[in-house]
Amino acid sequence: MLYSPIQIPPIKNELLKIPAVELAAKIRMSYSVGSLTREGVKSTKDGDTIGHLRAAGGIPLLVSNTPEFCTSWETSNLITGRTLNPYNSRITPGGSSGGEGALIGAGASLFGIGSDIAGSIRVPAMFNGIFGHKPTGGVVSVNGHFPYSTDDAFQKYLVIGPMCRYAKDLPTLVHIMSGSNASKLRLDEQLYTKDIKIFYMEDAGFSFIDVPVENSIKIAMWKALNHFKSNSLQVMPAPIKSLQESMEIGLVKMFEIPDIPIILKHPQNPQMEDSLYMELAKSLFGKSKYSFAGLFFCVLIRTNGFISKSKNVHYNEKLEDLRRHFLSFLGDNGVMFYPTYPITALRHCDSFAKIAGVMYTMIFNILGFPATHVPLGKDSDGIPIGIQVVAAPYQDRLCLCIAAELEAAFGGWVPPF
Length: 417
Fold this sequence. Notes:
Layout: E1 17-21, H1 48-55, E2 59-64, E3 76-77, E4 81-82, H2 98-105, E5 111-116, H3 122-127, E6 131-134, H4 152-157, E7 159-164, H5 169-177, H6 182-185, E8 197-200, H7 215-230, E9 235-237, H8 246-254, E10 265-266, E11 269-273, H9 276-284, H10 292-302, H11 312-330, E12 334-339, H12 359-367, E13 371-378, E14 384-391, H13 396-410
Parallel strand pairs: 1-2, 8-9, 8-12
Antiparallel strand pairs: 3-4, 5-7, 6-7, 6-13, 10-11, 12-14, 13-14
Helix pairs in contact: 8-11, 8-12, 9-10
C-alpha cells in the first residue's frame, strides 16, 4: 500500500447510517447541546453538513452527547449525564465530541460527525482509539452548528469533520462534507505516499504549564517514523524550536472573537445574562443550572485566559511567525507528526488539572491547518494511544494518505472487547 494512490470513490448515495453529534443541527432532533436552558429545543432544519451527507445517502440515527455548549474536554452535562469511555469506564471519552467518539470506539456505528475548535474531534478520537480529521479551516460549512458566531475568525477556528474506525472512510466523508469547496482539497487526484516528506516533533518544548508527553506516545510515534524510514521516505525533525507558547496563542486568539456564545445569556433575551460569580457559588453546592465546565469557560473569557491583554500583540506576532515557518517547511508535500494529546485518556474530572494538554491541538485550529488523529494501538493498560498528522492548508489529502498507510502498518482501530 505504501506506493498506491489515494482515490475517492464515486459519490452517489453510497453512505449508510451515520450517527451525528448533537451540535450539528438535524431536522426535529435534539438541539439542547447539553444545556438545561435549552432543554427540549429541537432543530428546525438541517445544518449544511448534515444536508450534504443526507444528499449522499446518509441516514442520521441520533444526536450523541456533548458537554454544555461544547465547552469541555470531557463529555458530561446536566441533561444526559456523563459519557463513559468504552475502553475503561473510569476514564473520559474526551470532548467535546466525546459521545460520538465513545459510540464509534465501541463499534456502535461506522462513522459520525464531530466539531473541533480546540481539539474536540482529535482528542475524543485519541481517547477512543479511532480516526478523526480536522479539515482545513473554512472548508466545511459550520452553518447549523451551535454554539455559532458569524465572526470570520470563529468560522475558521471551528471546523466540522468526520470521526470513524477506518481510515479508508475519511476521504469520502471529507469530500462530501466539504460541499462546493471539495475541489479545493483535490481529494480525487492520485497521491503516492513515497512523495510525502515527514517531519516530527516529540513535544511542544518546556513550559511551566506543560503536561509532559508520556513515553508510550513517543514510542508509538517512533515506530511510525521508523516504518516510513524503512520504506525510504524522507523523515526529519521539524525545523522549529518549540511550540511552548501554543496555549497562550490559542487562548488570546480565541478570546479576541467578539460575542462568543456563552451559557449565561438568556435564550429568549441574549442581552440579559446571569451572574457568573453567583452561579459559580451555587455550583459548589450543586445548585446551579449550569455545568461547572461551562462556567469555567466563562471565567476564561472574562480573564482573557488569565493572560494580560498587554501580551496580545506579542502572541499575535508569534502566531504569524509560526504560520510563516510552518508553511515554509511543510509546503505542498510535507506533514508533521505531533502528539494529539500528551497523555492517554484522563480519569473523569481530571481535565481541569491537565487543561494545558490542549495546546497540542488548539494551535492548529488557530493556524487553520488540517490535522488527522491516527490510532496506533494501546498502551500497557489497554488505553488507546496515537498521534496527529498535520499539513499545510488545503493539503488534507496528505494527512489522509499517511493515516491510511499507518492503519495498514499498525492495525488502526483495536476493539475494546
